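Bug #77: duplicate submission created two jobs. Keeping one. Sequence:
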Amino acid sequence: MTNQDPHESRASLRIGMACVAIGAMLFASKGLFGKALYQRGVGFELLVAVRAVIAMPLFLWVGLRRGPGTPVVPRPPPAARPRSAAVVAAALAGIICYYVGALVDFWALTLIDASIERVLLFSYPAMVVLISSVMRRTRPDSRVVLAMAATYLGIFFAMGGVDLHELRANLFGAGLVLVAALTTAIYFLIGERYTRELGSGRFVAIGMTSAAVLLAAHFLAFRPLSEIASLGALDWLLLGILGIACTFVPGLLQAEGMRRVGAQRGAIASTIGPPTTILLAAIFLHERLNAWQLLGTALIVASVLWLSIGGKPRAAGS
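Kept job's structure:
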Protein backbone atom coordinates (compact mmCIF):
# COMPACT_ATOMS: atom_id res chain seq x y z
CA MET A 1 0.00 0.00 0.00
CA THR A 2 1.47 3.38 -1.01
CA ASN A 3 1.28 6.44 1.15
CA GLN A 4 -0.72 9.38 -0.14
CA ASP A 5 1.31 12.35 -1.40
CA PRO A 6 1.19 15.02 1.36
CA HIS A 7 0.64 17.74 -1.26
CA GLU A 8 -2.34 15.81 -2.63
CA SER A 9 -3.60 15.30 0.92
CA ARG A 10 -3.44 19.03 1.68
CA ALA A 11 -5.09 19.86 -1.64
CA SER A 12 -7.87 17.36 -0.92
CA LEU A 13 -8.34 18.89 2.53
CA ARG A 14 -8.62 22.40 1.10
CA ILE A 15 -11.09 21.24 -1.56
CA GLY A 16 -13.13 19.37 1.04
CA MET A 17 -13.31 22.33 3.43
CA ALA A 18 -14.28 24.59 0.51
CA CYS A 19 -17.03 22.17 -0.54
CA VAL A 20 -18.54 22.08 2.96
CA ALA A 21 -18.28 25.85 3.39
CA ILE A 22 -19.83 26.65 0.00
CA GLY A 23 -22.55 24.07 0.65
CA ALA A 24 -23.32 25.68 4.01
CA MET A 25 -23.53 29.12 2.40
CA LEU A 26 -25.89 27.85 -0.30
CA PHE A 27 -28.08 26.19 2.33
CA ALA A 28 -27.98 29.49 4.24
CA SER A 29 -29.47 31.39 1.27
CA LYS A 30 -32.63 29.25 1.40
CA GLY A 31 -34.46 31.74 3.61
CA LEU A 32 -33.88 34.64 1.22
CA PHE A 33 -35.54 32.85 -1.70
CA GLY A 34 -38.31 31.63 0.58
CA LYS A 35 -39.02 35.17 1.76
CA ALA A 36 -38.96 36.48 -1.82
CA LEU A 37 -41.52 33.87 -2.87
CA TYR A 38 -43.74 34.64 0.12
CA GLN A 39 -43.74 38.31 -0.87
CA ARG A 40 -44.97 37.23 -4.30
CA GLY A 41 -47.89 35.35 -2.74
CA VAL A 42 -46.51 31.79 -2.94
CA GLY A 43 -47.64 29.68 0.02
CA PHE A 44 -45.14 27.68 2.05
CA GLU A 45 -46.87 24.34 1.30
CA LEU A 46 -46.59 24.92 -2.45
CA LEU A 47 -43.00 26.10 -2.06
CA VAL A 48 -41.92 23.03 -0.08
CA ALA A 49 -43.67 20.61 -2.45
CA VAL A 50 -42.26 22.13 -5.65
CA ARG A 51 -38.77 22.42 -4.13
CA ALA A 52 -38.76 18.71 -3.26
CA VAL A 53 -40.19 17.61 -6.61
CA ILE A 54 -37.54 19.63 -8.47
CA ALA A 55 -34.68 18.24 -6.37
CA MET A 56 -35.94 14.62 -6.28
CA PRO A 57 -34.96 13.44 -9.80
CA LEU A 58 -31.52 15.00 -9.41
CA PHE A 59 -30.88 13.17 -6.14
CA LEU A 60 -32.23 9.99 -7.73
CA TRP A 61 -29.87 10.38 -10.67
CA VAL A 62 -26.88 10.74 -8.35
CA GLY A 63 -28.04 7.95 -6.05
CA LEU A 64 -28.43 5.47 -8.91
CA ARG A 65 -25.17 6.26 -10.71
CA ARG A 66 -22.59 3.53 -10.91
CA GLY A 67 -18.90 3.39 -11.57
CA PRO A 68 -15.64 4.84 -10.32
CA GLY A 69 -16.42 8.35 -11.48
CA THR A 70 -18.85 9.03 -8.67
CA PRO A 71 -16.83 9.31 -5.44
CA VAL A 72 -19.52 11.48 -3.87
CA VAL A 73 -21.84 8.46 -3.79
CA PRO A 74 -20.22 5.55 -1.94
CA ARG A 75 -22.07 2.32 -2.66
CA PRO A 76 -22.07 -1.08 -0.97
CA PRO A 77 -20.31 -3.94 -2.79
CA PRO A 78 -22.46 -5.74 -5.38
CA ALA A 79 -22.85 -8.84 -3.19
CA ALA A 80 -24.20 -6.83 -0.27
CA ARG A 81 -27.81 -6.20 -1.16
CA PRO A 82 -29.39 -3.71 1.25
CA ARG A 83 -31.89 -5.12 3.69
CA SER A 84 -35.48 -3.95 3.42
CA ALA A 85 -35.10 -2.53 6.95
CA ALA A 86 -32.38 -0.16 5.69
CA VAL A 87 -34.57 1.02 2.81
CA VAL A 88 -37.50 1.61 5.17
CA ALA A 89 -35.22 3.48 7.58
CA ALA A 90 -33.97 5.75 4.78
CA ALA A 91 -37.54 6.44 3.68
CA LEU A 92 -38.57 7.20 7.27
CA ALA A 93 -35.60 9.52 7.74
CA GLY A 94 -36.52 11.41 4.58
CA ILE A 95 -40.16 11.73 5.61
CA ILE A 96 -39.20 13.01 9.07
CA CYS A 97 -36.64 15.55 7.83
CA TYR A 98 -37.70 16.54 4.32
CA TYR A 99 -41.47 16.28 4.81
CA VAL A 100 -42.24 17.14 8.44
CA GLY A 101 -39.09 19.16 9.04
CA ALA A 102 -39.27 21.12 5.79
CA LEU A 103 -42.94 21.98 6.25
CA VAL A 104 -42.51 23.36 9.76
CA ASP A 105 -39.25 25.12 8.82
CA PHE A 106 -40.73 27.00 5.87
CA TRP A 107 -43.87 27.70 7.91
CA ALA A 108 -41.58 29.29 10.50
CA LEU A 109 -40.06 31.49 7.78
CA THR A 110 -43.48 33.09 7.33
CA LEU A 111 -43.37 34.13 11.00
CA ILE A 112 -39.77 35.01 11.88
CA ASP A 113 -36.70 36.51 10.24
CA ALA A 114 -34.52 34.29 8.05
CA SER A 115 -31.55 35.15 10.29
CA ILE A 116 -33.21 33.77 13.41
CA GLU A 117 -34.47 30.69 11.53
CA ARG A 118 -30.99 29.68 10.38
CA VAL A 119 -29.42 30.27 13.78
CA LEU A 120 -32.04 28.17 15.58
CA LEU A 121 -31.87 25.38 12.99
CA PHE A 122 -28.14 25.19 13.64
CA SER A 123 -28.87 23.95 17.17
CA TYR A 124 -29.39 20.38 15.91
CA PRO A 125 -25.82 19.13 16.65
CA ALA A 126 -26.49 19.58 20.38
CA MET A 127 -29.75 17.64 19.93
CA VAL A 128 -27.83 14.82 18.23
CA VAL A 129 -25.47 14.59 21.19
CA LEU A 130 -28.31 14.70 23.71
CA ILE A 131 -30.39 12.03 21.93
CA SER A 132 -27.32 9.83 21.45
CA SER A 133 -26.55 10.00 25.15
CA VAL A 134 -30.11 9.03 26.07
CA MET A 135 -30.17 6.15 23.56
CA ARG A 136 -26.82 4.81 24.73
CA ARG A 137 -27.63 5.46 28.39
CA THR A 138 -24.35 7.27 28.81
CA ARG A 139 -23.71 10.51 30.59
CA PRO A 140 -22.18 13.27 28.41
CA ASP A 141 -18.82 14.53 29.59
CA SER A 142 -18.46 18.02 31.01
CA ARG A 143 -17.23 19.42 27.68
CA VAL A 144 -20.40 18.28 25.91
CA VAL A 145 -22.64 19.50 28.75
CA LEU A 146 -21.06 22.96 28.51
CA ALA A 147 -21.56 23.03 24.72
CA MET A 148 -25.21 22.04 25.04
CA ALA A 149 -25.78 24.62 27.78
CA ALA A 150 -24.27 27.28 25.51
CA THR A 151 -26.51 26.13 22.65
CA TYR A 152 -29.73 26.42 24.61
CA LEU A 153 -28.69 29.71 26.19
CA GLY A 154 -27.96 30.88 22.64
CA ILE A 155 -31.44 29.76 21.54
CA PHE A 156 -32.98 31.82 24.34
CA PHE A 157 -31.02 34.91 23.31
CA ALA A 158 -31.68 34.38 19.58
CA MET A 159 -35.42 34.32 20.30
CA GLY A 160 -35.18 37.71 21.98
CA GLY A 161 -33.72 36.90 25.37
CA VAL A 162 -34.52 39.41 28.07
CA ASP A 163 -36.61 41.48 25.64
CA LEU A 164 -39.97 39.95 26.51
CA HIS A 165 -41.77 41.62 23.61
CA GLU A 166 -39.25 40.21 21.12
CA LEU A 167 -39.36 36.85 22.86
CA ARG A 168 -43.15 36.61 22.60
CA ALA A 169 -43.09 37.75 18.95
CA ASN A 170 -40.69 34.98 17.99
CA LEU A 171 -41.94 32.24 20.30
CA PHE A 172 -44.19 30.21 17.98
CA GLY A 173 -41.99 30.56 14.89
CA ALA A 174 -38.89 29.67 16.89
CA GLY A 175 -40.68 26.64 18.29
CA LEU A 176 -41.37 25.46 14.75
CA VAL A 177 -37.70 25.83 13.81
CA LEU A 178 -36.67 23.82 16.87
CA VAL A 179 -39.02 21.06 15.72
CA ALA A 180 -37.28 21.21 12.31
CA ALA A 181 -33.90 21.05 14.07
CA LEU A 182 -35.07 17.95 15.93
CA THR A 183 -36.08 16.28 12.65
CA THR A 184 -32.62 17.08 11.25
CA ALA A 185 -31.00 15.50 14.29
CA ILE A 186 -33.13 12.37 13.86
CA TYR A 187 -32.22 12.26 10.14
CA PHE A 188 -28.49 12.24 10.90
CA LEU A 189 -28.86 9.67 13.67
CA ILE A 190 -30.67 7.31 11.27
CA GLY A 191 -28.20 8.13 8.50
CA GLU A 192 -25.23 7.40 10.75
CA ARG A 193 -26.48 3.84 11.08
CA TYR A 194 -27.71 3.07 7.55
CA THR A 195 -25.53 5.05 5.10
CA ARG A 196 -22.80 2.43 5.52
CA GLU A 197 -25.19 -0.18 4.18
CA LEU A 198 -26.93 1.86 1.50
CA GLY A 199 -24.31 4.41 0.56
CA SER A 200 -24.90 8.12 1.18
CA GLY A 201 -26.25 8.82 -2.32
CA ARG A 202 -28.78 6.00 -2.23
CA PHE A 203 -29.80 6.93 1.32
CA VAL A 204 -30.49 10.55 0.32
CA ALA A 205 -32.26 9.47 -2.89
CA ILE A 206 -34.64 7.16 -1.01
CA GLY A 207 -35.31 9.77 1.66
CA MET A 208 -35.89 12.65 -0.75
CA THR A 209 -38.12 10.56 -3.03
CA SER A 210 -40.29 9.44 -0.12
CA ALA A 211 -40.63 12.99 1.15
CA ALA A 212 -41.35 14.44 -2.32
CA VAL A 213 -44.16 11.94 -2.91
CA LEU A 214 -45.73 12.79 0.45
CA LEU A 215 -45.30 16.53 -0.07
CA ALA A 216 -46.99 16.34 -3.47
CA ALA A 217 -49.85 14.32 -1.95
CA HIS A 218 -50.07 16.78 0.94
CA PHE A 219 -50.38 19.72 -1.45
CA LEU A 220 -53.01 18.00 -3.59
CA ALA A 221 -55.00 17.10 -0.48
CA PHE A 222 -54.95 20.48 1.24
CA ARG A 223 -54.35 23.16 -1.39
CA PRO A 224 -56.10 24.05 -4.67
CA LEU A 225 -54.39 23.34 -7.99
CA SER A 226 -55.05 26.95 -8.94
CA GLU A 227 -52.03 27.88 -6.82
CA ILE A 228 -49.77 26.07 -9.29
CA ALA A 229 -51.54 27.58 -12.27
CA SER A 230 -51.05 31.08 -10.85
CA LEU A 231 -47.25 30.77 -10.68
CA GLY A 232 -45.45 33.15 -12.99
CA ALA A 233 -42.11 32.79 -14.78
CA LEU A 234 -40.22 34.56 -11.99
CA ASP A 235 -41.88 32.30 -9.39
CA TRP A 236 -40.71 29.21 -11.27
CA LEU A 237 -37.22 30.67 -11.60
CA LEU A 238 -37.00 31.30 -7.85
CA LEU A 239 -38.40 27.83 -7.10
CA GLY A 240 -35.88 26.29 -9.48
CA ILE A 241 -33.03 28.10 -7.73
CA LEU A 242 -34.38 26.98 -4.36
CA GLY A 243 -34.65 23.34 -5.47
CA ILE A 244 -31.34 23.13 -7.32
CA ALA A 245 -28.94 25.76 -5.98
CA CYS A 246 -30.18 25.74 -2.36
CA THR A 247 -31.01 22.03 -1.99
CA PHE A 248 -29.44 19.70 -4.56
CA VAL A 249 -26.06 21.39 -5.18
CA PRO A 250 -25.25 22.03 -1.48
CA GLY A 251 -26.30 18.48 -0.67
CA LEU A 252 -23.70 17.15 -3.12
CA LEU A 253 -21.04 19.62 -2.01
CA GLN A 254 -21.46 18.69 1.63
CA ALA A 255 -21.39 14.97 0.85
CA GLU A 256 -18.15 15.39 -1.12
CA GLY A 257 -16.67 17.67 1.50
CA MET A 258 -17.46 15.26 4.33
CA ARG A 259 -15.94 12.42 2.30
CA ARG A 260 -12.69 14.36 1.98
CA VAL A 261 -12.32 15.95 5.42
CA GLY A 262 -14.50 13.89 7.76
CA ALA A 263 -17.25 14.92 10.14
CA GLN A 264 -15.17 16.99 12.59
CA ARG A 265 -13.61 19.37 10.07
CA GLY A 266 -16.84 19.41 8.08
CA ALA A 267 -18.84 20.54 11.09
CA ILE A 268 -16.30 23.31 11.73
CA ALA A 269 -16.51 24.53 8.11
CA SER A 270 -20.32 24.49 8.26
CA THR A 271 -20.35 27.12 11.03
CA ILE A 272 -20.09 29.72 8.26
CA GLY A 273 -23.81 29.10 7.58
CA PRO A 274 -25.53 31.26 10.25
CA PRO A 275 -23.25 34.31 9.79
CA THR A 276 -23.82 34.05 6.03
CA THR A 277 -27.59 34.12 6.53
CA ILE A 278 -27.31 37.13 8.86
CA LEU A 279 -25.21 39.02 6.31
CA LEU A 280 -27.41 38.15 3.31
CA ALA A 281 -30.61 38.91 5.24
CA ALA A 282 -29.22 42.27 6.30
CA ILE A 283 -28.26 43.16 2.70
CA PHE A 284 -31.30 41.84 0.81
CA LEU A 285 -34.11 41.69 3.39
CA HIS A 286 -32.98 44.57 5.65
CA GLU A 287 -33.19 42.32 8.70
CA ARG A 288 -31.22 43.43 11.74
CA LEU A 289 -30.51 41.29 14.79
CA ASN A 290 -30.30 43.05 18.13
CA ALA A 291 -27.35 42.63 20.49
CA TRP A 292 -28.99 39.75 22.39
CA GLN A 293 -29.69 37.85 19.18
CA LEU A 294 -26.12 38.36 17.97
CA LEU A 295 -24.91 37.02 21.31
CA GLY A 296 -27.20 34.00 20.87
CA THR A 297 -25.80 33.41 17.38
CA ALA A 298 -22.25 33.52 18.70
CA LEU A 299 -23.08 31.05 21.48
CA ILE A 300 -24.70 28.54 19.10
CA VAL A 301 -21.86 28.71 16.56
CA ALA A 302 -19.28 28.43 19.37
CA SER A 303 -21.05 25.39 20.79
CA VAL A 304 -20.92 23.61 17.40
CA LEU A 305 -17.20 24.35 17.18
CA TRP A 306 -16.76 23.07 20.74
CA LEU A 307 -18.64 19.85 19.98
CA SER A 308 -16.67 19.36 16.75
CA ILE A 309 -13.27 19.87 18.32
CA GLY A 310 -14.36 17.63 21.15
CA GLY A 311 -15.02 14.74 18.76
CA LYS A 312 -18.84 14.83 18.82
CA PRO A 313 -19.64 16.48 15.50
CA ARG A 314 -22.34 15.83 12.98
CA ALA A 315 -22.78 16.89 9.40
CA ALA A 316 -24.61 20.11 8.79
CA GLY A 317 -27.72 20.32 6.77
CA SER A 318 -30.75 22.22 5.98
